[in-house]
Structures are given as structure tokens and as C-alpha cells.
Amino acid sequence: MATEEEILLFHDQDYVRLVKRSSEKGSGLLDMGDTPAFKGCYEATSLVVGASLQACDLIMNGQYMHAFNPSGGLHHAHPDRASGFCIFNDPAISIAYLKRKYDVKRLVYLDIDAHHGDGVMYGFYDDPAVLDIDFHESGRYIFPGTGYPDETGRGPANGLKVNIPLLPGSGDEAFLQGFESIVPALVRKYHPEAILVQCGADGHDEYPRYLGCFCDEASVRHR
């Protein structure tokens, strides 16, 4: 399990306290209505975060080149609230963890989930240490309604938040063309020390859309 101190690298203290209380009670809402609490939700989502942080440690300590957390990728949670069934944002916490513990100065966050990774992008919107590249179905048609091309970052991070919204029903050809024409060049130019990938399974055309947020995945690679 991630410690409370680790979770507080991204989330606000008041929100963490709310999750703890709701977890003990076994009921209540952690946002405006999408994300209900359940008995033990604090412990469960802390395990997800802990697995992602362990992946970071294994890679940064040179034990592995790649690591994969099949329970991770809860990219909708914001510092002060849950969202889209995501309680604690393990990718965002992992980014903050890599920056603090390993002094990572340049990190690529690549998100190919069908839903925009709003919690991560807005959480680091003015942070030049994070190049955020996000492929997703356009927010005009799908939750959370964000991730438009003109959302490019703020201040020193302007130009480092890259959103590629696709139309509903876009297939492999459109995705691969966009990926191959954008991602390799950006990554090479940015020269990251680590790459964090949120590879949500819900982009597949036969995947049940209502299960998408429960089946995200995350992996991290050190260069």
C-alpha cells in the first residue's frame, strides 16, 4: 500500500481524509455523483498507487527496464476530488514521486485511453517537467469533455501538453498515423528520463464502454 505521505504528493489532505472516512463508513460520494465510496476503498486504491510506485522504484533502481501495473491508470482523479470512478490518481502520484525521490527533470506521460486523462494533464498543466501526450475520443462526445487541441499548457509548460482528440469510431489507421507522426519526434526532442504510459483497454471497438474506467492500465519505463 502507498503511504498517506505518498498519496499527499498529489492529493489534498482534506480529500484524503474524506476518502478515509467514507471508506470506513462504506458509503457516500467522493465527487459530484460519478464515484461512490465503498467499504475499504481507501485501502484498495492505496494498493493501486503502491503498485505503481513500486514499479517506479524497480525501474529507477535499475532492476528492470519496464514495469506494468494492470490495476493502475486511474487518471481522472483530481487533487481535491474523485472523478470517473478514479479515487487516487496513481499516474499523477507516480509523476510527483519520480520528481521528488529521483529528481527526474523530464518525464513523458503518454495516455492512449479512450477517455482524456484530465486529472494528470490539469494536475501538471504549468509544469515543464512533464510532456503530456494524450490520444482520446473527442470530449465533444465522451467523458470527461476535455482534452482539446488548444489546451497546450500554461506558463513555462506552454506547448508541452499535446492533445490529439479522435472522432468516435476512429480505427487503427487513424490512430497509428497520428501516433507515428507525432509521438516519436516529440519524445526524441524532449529527451525524457522516464516514460509513463496509461494504456487503457477501452480504446478497443468491442470493449464495453461502461467498463472502461475500471480496466485502465499503466506502465513506466526508464531511459
Describe this structure in words.
The chain is of the alpha/beta class and 223 residues long. Helices cover 34% and strands 15% of the residues. The chain has 6 helices and 6 strands, in the order H-H-H-E-H-E-H-E-E-H-E-E. The protein has a 6-stranded mixed beta sheet, with helices on both faces. Helix 3 packs across helix 4.
DSSP helical segment count: 6
Record the strand order, biggest sheet.
1-6-5-2-3-4
Sequence stretches where pLDDT stays below 50 over 5 or more residues: 210-216
- Major β-sheet annotation: 6 strands, mixed
Structural class: alpha/beta
The average pLDDT value, as a whole number, equals 92
Features:
single chain; 223 residues; alpha/beta; 6-stranded mixed β-sheet
In short:
This protein has 223 residues and is an alpha/beta fold. It has six helices and six strands.
